[in-house]
Amino acid sequence: MKLLSETKMFGGQQQRYTHHSRLNHCDMTFSVYLPPQAENHKVPVLYWLSGLTCNDENFVIKAGAQRYAAEYGIAIVTPDTSPRGEGVPDDPDGAWDFGLGAGFYLNATQAPWSTHYQMYDYITRELVALIENNFPVSDKKSISGHSMGGHGALSIALKNPQSYCSVSAFSPIVNPIACPWGKKAFSNYLGADEKAWQQYDTCCLIEASSHSESRHLPMLIDQGSDDDFLQEQLLTTNLQDVCSKHNYPVTINMNNGYDHSYFFIASFIGNHIKFHARELQKL
């Protein structure tokens, strides 16, 4: 790893690193906030996954999460949203909803994406190992995210319920197999077989979990009523319907007047950090 920057904040340290990813075959960048408690003992960690067009810095700069992370003694790790660099393919039309900045937190199986776009394994395996081996954090972890990152957080947690203590999301894409963003990304990254898409779809994963003994993670979702993407892309009512159908425990807050922006995230991030702290600090 190479340290790119380090800044004291709320008694802790906000740091940014780059490292070579063996899974994505390129250099990857991530940010980590270490609360002041990390100077004395290992702390639990919250992984935050950002949305389309973002990188590791958007949440760090805009969300205001460090104040609450310092209060509750939680580290926050924020990876980039896709592989980047020379040789990493991008949307051939230069669109913002696919390719660079839009990895969708899955393992691509189709050329030319499969060489670099292994974001699911990167988040769940490579990055976790890197953090746990190099920083004063415990093995207790939770995961959260926004929009595409909300999709990533929910799908990763549902596929790995024993690995995380809790999951939350802001404005998540909950049914990507049924929305334009998801259909474009999945058809390119995963191919034409829509059955292969279901393993990365929150609604499908909850449907599947109803037929198994999978652990039900504590789950919190906040959505703004004035979100321009709500009806076409996010499809929150689809998640409400499948959770109700299978009696899946989840808290979904519809917040009147809020949009899709980081102003919305900043307004409620304290509630999410507190939610995760309660689960991460259980004995």
Quick structural overview:
With 283 residues, this protein is of the alpha/beta class.
The biggest beta sheet reads: 9 strands, mixed
Number of strands: 9
Helix content: 25-40%
Structural class: alpha/beta
Specify the number of helices.
10
At the fourth CATH level, what is the homologous superfamily?
Answer: Alpha/Beta hydrolase fold, catalytic domain
Separation of termini? 32 Å
Write down the overall geometry: globular
Strand order of the largest sheet: 1-2-3-5-4-6-7-8-9
Order of helices and strands: EEEEHHEHEHEHHHEHHEH
CATH architecture classification name: 3-Layer(aba) Sandwich
Question: What is the highest CATH level, the class?
Answer: Alpha Beta
Query: Low-confidence runs (pLDDT<50, min 5 residues)?
Result: none
Count of structural domains:
1
Q: Determine Rg (CA atoms, Å).
A: 18 Å
Topology:
Blueprint: E1 2-9, E2 12-21, E3 26-34, E4 43-49, H1 57-62, H2 66-72, E5 75-79, H3 119-134, E6 137-146, H4 148-159, E7 167-170, H5 180-190, H6 194-197, H7 202-209, E8 219-224, H8 230-234, H9 236-245, E9 251-255, H10 262-280
Parallel strand pairs: 4-5, 4-6, 6-7, 7-8, 8-9
Antiparallel strand pairs: 1-2, 2-3, 3-5
Helix pairs in contact: 2-10, 4-7, 7-9
